[in-house]
Amino acid sequence: MRSFDALVVGGGVSGIRAALDLAGMNYNVCLVEKEPFIGGKVAKITKTFPNLENPRESLVNNMEDLEGNPNIELMTNTQVLGCDGSLNNFSTKVLHKARFVNDSCDACGKCIEVCPEEIPNAFNGNLDTRKAIYIPFSQAVPKIYAIDEEGCTKCEECVKVCPKDAIDLNMKGREEEIGAKTVILATGYDLFEPVGIYGYGAYEDVITSMQLIRMSDTDGPTGGKISRPSDGKEAKDVGFILCAGSRDINYNPYCSNYCCTFTIKNALELKEADPTRNVYVIYMDIRTPFKGAEELYRKARESGVKFLRGRPATVKEDDGKLLVSFFENFIDKELELNLDLLVLAEASLPSKDSKDLAKLFGIDTDDYGFFTEKNSRLAPIETKREGILICGCAQGLKDISLSVSQGSAAAAKASALLSRL
């Protein structure tokens, strides 16, 4: 059994930061990620609030540093099956799922050219398609293709053209026991699918915030053009609805924390890219608690983004346009917006695996599924099981900078525990 000083579960920004910090202190780290590639949701984002900075370069540098760090063992496409033991002596069983492509792959792309299977591209919010063999974006880590088992028909066309004999369609998964002195859980969050809310799923031109983000990327499904999925025409009248599935007893009663500021940033981007575009934000309340967020809100208003307080009653499609009706509380009047595109700020959820993982690691979750802290204010990254730490959105919803900070905090706490052993 291979043993490490620390096991980090989750390859998003929080887990990456924790692993890099521990490796920088000369601890041996194993990072396990259930997906074939690391980077999490931040890899999909083109600009962050409040300064509209592109996070991709820094994230890619961190991912490449992690992959090349001799103190870090990176295990992608790997699922945790169980964990026994205690501080200084954890034993974790993992399943290395079949990737069907081995490490000799040099990402030459010949396989992509011949693969006949087109499947929905989850990385781009299913706004376009990709091949069954894929890399989500050009700078992905590891830079080794993966095959989507559900989408692959095993026609073997990719096998025939691979110059490195890197593809094995008969590859099997394998289990392994990993020893670790400490464990950090950084399993992130999932996004709510707002089917049935405000026309999502019924009308093509009702999309989510993350779909808009992928649309705005020059490497995304529309080449950076903000267009209507229904006909590809540029969207000149765009509306946003906040709290789509958040603060709603029928779905998720809690606030998703970062959505207001994220939406303000998205609306401002659209307005600055095209000042003639009409941009509306319909909201219950605006919550801007982060550094620089209130200033961003003010800037968006000054740029011409129109903020309307109310709760939409109906969304209908008429003659190719979306009609959004609602009561505007400030002016005490019924309004109707005539839109090309409607963007829902979808709720954020605990990772769908969080409750199962909590049982495997012997810790607790709250009523919603977020990992429970030893003390929510004085020990926010510790759990009831000594040696198992939590960070990032697995602990509770937060923005990118706080997730990264908690990754560093978890690494520091792990180091303190290790120093006593």
Describe this structure in words.
The two termini are 20 Å apart. It is built from nine helices and 21 strands. It has two domains: 2-97 and 173-188 and 351-420, FAD/NAD(P)-binding domain (3-Layer(bba) Sandwich), CATH 3.50.50; 192-348, FAD/NAD(P)-binding domain. By secondary structure, it is of the alpha/beta class.
Give me the count of strands.
21
What fraction of residues sit in β-strands? Answer: 25-35%
> At CATH's second level, what is the architecture of the largest domain?
3-Layer(bba) Sandwich
Largest β sheet strand count, sense and barrel closure: 7 strands, mixed
Element pattern in H and E: EHEHEEEHEEEEHEEEHEHEHEEEEEEHEH
Q: From the alpha-carbon coordinates, what is the Rg to the nearest angstrom?
A: 23 Å
Show unreliable segments.
Answer: none
What distance lies between the first and last C-alpha atoms, to the nearest angstrom? 20 Å
Strand and helix layout:
Layout: E1 2-9, H1 13-24, E2 29-32, H2 56-68, E3 72-75, E4 78-86, E5 89-96, H3 110-114, E6 118-120, E7 129-131, E8 133-134, E9 146-147, H4 157-161, E10 174-185, E11 189-191, E12 206-208, H5 209-216, E13 237-244, H6 259-273, E14 278-283, H7 293-303, E15 306-309, E16 314-318, E17 321-328, E18 333-339, E19 341-346, E20 348-350, H8 354-361, E21 388-390, H9 400-420
